[in-house]
Design a protein that fits this description.
Helix content is about 75%, strand content about 0%. By secondary structure, it is mostly helical. The longest helix is centred in the N-terminal third of the chain and has 19 residues, at about 5-25.
Length: about 100
């Protein structure tokens, strides 16, 4: 059974955070993602999977406006200008930590 992207992202961040801690690395790069709510992480992982706001809304059984609000909150909390830059930053953080 395929695990949801959010589980994979959370597992990767946990693994990378543990590895960085053992090596005395900088954990700040992971901390910004901890500020996201569970729902914001769900929405972000679905965006990373290529889903539109309408598709995300249908899957989560919320309105598209609520999805847009979650996306805006992610951008604000992460200090990003676009959802694409957030997804790229997340992937870069996870990939370069290994």
């Amino acid at each position: 059974m395929k695990r949801p992207v959010s589980d994979g992202v959370n597992s990767a961040l946990t693994m990378c955070r543990d590895e960085e801690g053992r090596e005395g690395g900088n954990l700040d790069q992971f901390d910004k993602f901890d500020n996201l709510s569970r729902r914001e992480k769900e929405v972000l992982s679905m965006v990373a999977d290529g889903k539109t706001s309408k598709q995300i809304a249908q899957t989560l059984r919320i309105s598209p406006k609520t999805v847009q609000a979650h996306r805006a909150n992610c951008l604000r909390k992460l200090g990003a200008n676009s959802t694409r830059s957030v997804v790229c930053d997340l992937l870069r953080t996870v990939l370069t930590a290994n």
